[in-house]
Specification:
With 236 residues, the chain is an alpha/beta fold. It has 10 helices and 7 strands. It is 41% helix and 17% strand. The longest helix is centred in the N-terminal third of the chain and has 15 residues. 37% of the residues are buried.
Amino acid sequence: MILHSVEVGTGEPIVFLHTGLQTGMTDFEYQREFFKDSFRVILPDLRGHGQSINNDLSNFFEDAARDLLDTLEKKEMSSIHIVGASLGALVGLFFAKRFPEKVKSLTLSGITPGKPENWNQMHKEDVAVQTQLLQNEEAIHHFDQLHAADWKQFLYMARNDEWYPFEETKDLAGIRSPILLIVGEGNPNETTGAISYRSMHENVHVSIIPFASHLVHMEQPQLYSEVLKLFLKGIS
């Protein structure tokens, strides 16, 4: 499917892939303004989010990667810089593995290559938070306004403790482009994972940002953006 997207700026295309239950316009807000004077900033809504209406999540990551390819071909783009966080980072990773010729650089945050030892406890806590969200009328109204499709499906999908694609995140096989991992020091699983990725690919850079955790691009937006800018500057 062709993803609904918003564009600002001119120059080389850079695609920001949002986190779960956000949209192209509600996430990466600081980065959108930061990079719009030097890049063509593209902000898609992933399938099932915002105005990219699709309720089929049965093969979400594979389909989301194909959606991005369809969207780029519609825009006649041969290669792009990809920046993704959390759910968007997983989609970016899937895309870069399957369509490496389309990726000029890949920047990821909020992912981990291996299943943490405390995964079951982490998942249990996540499900508890999601259950509370589904009982919060104000939150339900907010997300109903944000998404045209049934956003609750993402919470139901995540209740399965096998939902996370560790088989894909375990390595960087097939990716040809330079890779940047930006992680917050407050998430030890992600920082350890980012360092381990360095041994998997010949062109991996790692930046550990202080006073941040899973959503490092929101928690330290200026530091995140400056590191990303430095990374992109070195790519011809």
